[in-house]
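Async update (no meeting this week)

Hi team, since we skipped the sync, here's where things stand on the single-chain job. The sequence we agreed to prioritize is pasted below, unchanged from the tracker. I ran it this morning and attached the output directly underneath so nobody has to dig for it. Comments welcome in thread, and please keep replies under the output.
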Amino acid sequence: MKMEAEKRFDTVDMMLNMGPQHPSTHGVFRMVLTIDGEKIVAVEPHIGYLHRGTEKLCEGEYYLQIVSLFDRLDYISSFNNELAFVIAVEKLMGIQVPERAEYIRVIMCELNRIASHLMFYAAFGADAGAITPFLYAFREREQIQSVFEAVSGARMMHNYFRVGGVIEDLPPDFGDRMNKLIPKLKQGIQECDDLLTGNEIFIARAKGVGAISAADAIDFGMSGPNLRACGVLEDIRRSEPYSVYPTLDFDIPAGQNGDCWDRYMVRMEEMRQSLRIVEQAIAEMPQGPVIAPQVRKIVKVPKGEVYVRVENPRGDFGVYLISQGGDKPYRVKIRGASFCNLMTLKKLLQQCYVADCVVVLGSLDIVLGEVDR
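Output:
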């Protein structure tokens, strides 16, 4: 009788497919979960559904054309991606970018960081079961997108930065637009904070969930807000300064526990710090040209190789560029922040509940266009 009872209550692990069509996988990402009841025993991530061969495509395009390919990688932070590529080319060519162009680049990149984090806030709230944060975030994000459209002519794929500067100066009404936008963004970010941060259900869903230590995060190659949530004060804008960031005053928000809650809080504070940077850049931006005079339409880059890193909204975004001379690169290799952050997922989800799966994944804030490339 005892053996029969034991057999009757034997359990086996179950395989559960999540994605690639699942709305909470933040793109065409698939996870195969092995679950024991409600607990996740193991997870096997599957990527590559969005692979477009961007790095190989770069080899057949002129340097000017490649900028638009970088827009389509992490398509929520296009300006930041463009910046990494044009800096790489400028270093090989030895180009000095006009100061006004550098300030314009920083303003666009920091507004892009805010827009990206608002997208995170919207999606993360939905992952935790709240719909209203989506409406709040997109109300503010829409105003930033309108500025992007006025400056570059495009809402998403901006193709605005150029080797040596930017394609054209800011529109005449840019100052008036920003004078109206900045107070609205400050108020809007605070309203987003008030809506979600203190909610008991949200705190229970995020605090202590999906935690990772600083040592493990570094070993996995984590970067950006996800790494800073572990207490590591690593920000490329400070550790390897570029553009005019060394002249600007801003703080680096950090967490302590490396859990979903800290990853959320770091991004909320980063939006405020980005606004500080934008205000300073607007106040200090000089007049003058917006592109270096020696740059021609068909850029020819001397032989050499270079690696450039920038701090995009998801972390350490790098471009390794090899030129053998001429108007097209020999090789372009991209170090994607989302791709490296995603490597931690197996560890983060171990012994989590199935219900926590979407929250943990959402807290990493991945963009599949950059993961798959």
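Quick observations from my side:
The first strand starts at residue 14 and ends at 18.
The radius of gyration is 22 Å.
Reply here if anything looks off.
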